[in-house]
From TrEMBL:
This is Histidine triad (HIT) family protein. It holds the Pfam family DcpS_C. Coiled coil: none annotated. A motif (Histidine triad motif) lies at residues 97-101. Gene3D superfamilies: HIT-like (3.30.428.10). It comes from Sedimentibacter saalensis. GO terms for molecular function: catalytic activity. The active site is at residue 99. Residues 4-113 form the HIT domain.
Amino acid sequence: MDCIFCAIANKEIPSQIVFENDNLVAFRDLNPQAPVHILVVPKMHISSMNEITSENSHITAEIFEVINKIAEKENIKDSGYRVISNCGEDGCQSVKHLHFHLIGGKKLSETLS
């Protein structure tokens, strides 16, 4: 499998990691859309939200717990932030590995177009 996020999780590709535990890795986006733009990724390869099942849904719950901690650490918890996960071609999912964008640090646009 040739998955860039799996390679980052396995430390085969360097990245600016801001959080890591046994199940997840979070790192700064190489093309940030805001002052804070962090990707939160499960280490287990899950291709998209369409593959979340009762067997792996605990990973998604953990992702949102970690997003809360990272938002506090990055000083955007009180001012606000956006969490985005693209799914499938029409959703513009560019990497076929479940991931969540944590975006903040400035007033964000009300539209996503």
